[in-house]
Amino acid sequence: MARISYLWRRGATYYARIDVPLDLVPILKKPTLKRSLHTKDEAEAKRLLNAVIEDWRREFDDLRARRVLTDADRDHAVWGHYEAALDHDDAVRANLPGETEIEAAMEAAVERVRTEGIDMRDPLAALDVALDVQVVKDAASVDATARQAKLTDMRKHLAKGETALIADEVNEYLKRNRVYVEPRTPDWISLARRMMRSEIEALQRTLERDKGDFTGQPADPLVKPAIGPRRETAKPGETLMEIFEVFASENPRGVAKDRVDQSRRDIGTFVELVGSSFPIAKITKAEVREWKQLLVKYPVKATETKAFAGMNIRQIVKENEGVGKPVLADRTVNRYLSSLGAFLSWAVSNGYLDKNPTEGLMLKKETKTPTLPFTTDQLTTLFNSPWFTGCKSADEWRNVAKPGNVLIRDH
């Protein structure tokens, strides 16, 4: 079985090369990533390779984590859109022309008639001058009419399942928050409909404000302040693997380098699951439990198997349902958990998180077959054997089981 190589040589120069995971090809728009290592020396290239591969893997993890639209994402999108719509209304109202601006427009119209010599007996000329004043005078009512029309259309579109009126806002939210959800997918449509309901509520508030009522609150139960956390990422320099390298350099238990390297690989599969930017303080039993459940189905030497190239741990487990490679033994799964447990125990001691979430999640160790007691018949047979009643010879093994006069006392 050939090991997958990330080192590639073109001409005399070495390059790092990695296959883009299949699920990320539509986002990155390419099946393979390549980067020059700027060296012709193989040993130097190998030294530089790991850092490049880790950068790519972190990018993959981040992209993958942002392909899933969470409930918190939806809640923040809905409430954020509602508040933004009302903020926009505040800004528009603050800039609507008042009595002073209307009077100024009328004075400007009179001045225009005088300086340009406009004949007010000409209906078209008079209309042209009057429109300048009317636009300023009717700005508030025009804005209110536009909002009422939009509210009517938004309700119709929501009832019909159309999303054209909100599509730009949905895509802008996804882009701003780096969430990669394809248009017209169920997740995208669900978010669009929620944001439409949010805008309907906001438009209703603006119409209430036209009447002087600024106390209105959303009646739609879906439109409410978001209480779930926004997407969080690790602080600069505190990604899981960056913190692991601090742990590895301290090596608090003084373990051998091979064991440290093994732990790095073990924990790498956990990072692959949660994403490299996942904050260490947010790791709970839920993440560790999901990892364990995948590990018991994880094929042996998966990273060295071409059939699993470019796949993450979830995809590998799914693919192996058809491939049928042998999976990790329970003791190996426990080794993975032990690697993560030791790291997180150190992290607790160093203030990165409050409690080690791996505690109590080890698989049960295999139990030995219990020793069965002798039956009465077996004991009778044993004690009536030449070993106890006398054998032919205690020195010749072939005669030990033969009846005789020699008693074995020192055995």
From TrEMBL:
Core-binding (CB) domain residues: 238-348
The keyword DNA-binding appears for this protein: yes
Cross-referenced InterPro entries: CB (IPR044068), DNA_brk_join_enz (IPR011010), DUF6538 (IPR046668), Integrase_recombinase_N (IPR010998)
Domain of life assignment: Bacteria
GO molecular function, one term: DNA binding
Cited SUPFAM superfamilies: DNA breaking-rejoining enzymes (SSF56349)
Region (Disordered): 211-231
Alphabetized UniProt keyword annotations: DNA integration, DNA-binding
Gene Ontology biological process terms from the UniProt entry: DNA integration
The UniProt record lists the keyword rRNA processing: no
Record protein name field: Core-binding (CB) domain-containing protein
Organism phylogeny: Bacteria, Pseudomonadati, Pseudomonadota, Alphaproteobacteria, Rhodobacterales
